[in-house]
């Protein structure tokens, strides 16, 4: 689809829904991806050929950390970053290693922009060609009765139609309502 047509459809979609619903991933796929999911490494032979390793899990891991810290913003980040990096991030990395198999991942990319405000989206990994999500990593704010606020980290998989919450863990915030995501 032409770039100007995609941009026009994204703008029209945003206007019609008053920005309350994000445009379909297929419309954002080209503009909302970083095509660095492959790494070329030299082989250890005398032929000096290069071998393509797909996907570059290390790249996805680095982007996961960056996107999450971006989502936290300046107000939430300093409070929970350390606990996130030691408790939740290793679990996200394990999920990536397990779920991003070689046979299905040659066209996978990671979304660039986390959801702001009250949106749960941290990042999605999706197929560049179809625009369909494969894994969705989210965080929601929970407020159990008589307790403070918690950040619940979880993910959804395409193979169960994104219906199940696969828990990664929770981090306690405070008794006071946390600020919106990406607040600076």
Describe the secondary structure blueprint for this structure.
Elements lengths: L2 H14 L8 H4 L10 E4 L7 E4 L3 H43 L8 E3 L10 E7 L5 E10 L6 E9 L8 E9 L10
Antiparallel strand pairs: 1-2, 3-4, 4-5, 5-6, 6-7
Pfam family, one: YpjP
Organism: Metabacillus sediminis
Keywords: Signal
Number of individual domains? 1
Query: Main sheet: which strands, in order across?
Result: 3-4-5-6-7
* Radius of gyration over C-alpha positions, nearest whole angstrom: 18 Å
Number of helices: 3
**Helix and strand run:** HHEEHEEEEE
Strand-residue proportion: 25-35%
> What's the average pLDDT?
80
What helical percentage do the residues reach? 25-40%
The multimeric state of the shown protein is: single chain
Query: Which outline best applies?
Result: globular
Class computed from helices, strands and strand pairing: alpha+beta
N-to-C CA distance: 36 Å
State the major sheet: 5 strands, antiparallel
Number of separate strands: 7
Model regions low in confidence, pLDDT < 50 over at least 5 residues: 30-54
Verbal overview:
The chain is of the alpha+beta class. The protein has one domain (32-174). 33% of the residues lie in helices and 25% in strands. The chain has helices spanning 3-16, 25-28, 57-99; strands at residues 39-42, 50-53, 108-110, 121-127, 133-142, 149-157, 166-174. It has a five-stranded antiparallel beta sheet with strand order 3-4-5-6-7, with helices on one face. Strand 5 (133-142) and strand 6 (149-157) form a beta hairpin. Mean pLDDT is 80; it is low at 30-54.
């Amino acid at each position: 689809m032409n770039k100007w047509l995609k941009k026009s459809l994204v703008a029209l979609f945003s206007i019609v829904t008053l920005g309350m619903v994000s445009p379909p991933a297929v419309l954002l796929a080209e503009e909302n991806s970083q095509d660095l999911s492959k790494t070329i490494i030299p082989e250890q032979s005398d032929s000096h050929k290069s071998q393509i390793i797909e996907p570059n899990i290390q790249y996805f891991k680095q982007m996961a950390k960056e996107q999450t810290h971006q989502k936290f913003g300046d107000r939430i980040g300093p409070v929970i970053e350390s606990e996130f990096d030691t408790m939740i991030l290793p679990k996200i990395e394990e999920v990536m290693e397990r779920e991003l198999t070689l046979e299905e991942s040659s066209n996978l990319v990671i979304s660039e922009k986390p959801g702001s405000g009250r949106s749960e989206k941290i990042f999605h990994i999706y197929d560049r060609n179809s625009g369909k999500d494969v894994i969705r990593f989210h965080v929601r704010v929970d407020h159990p009765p008589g307790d403070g606020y918690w950040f619940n980290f979880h993910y959804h998989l395409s193979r169960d139609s994104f219906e199940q919450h696969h828990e990664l863990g929770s981090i306690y915030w405070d008794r006071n309502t946390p600020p919106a995501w990406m607040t600076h």
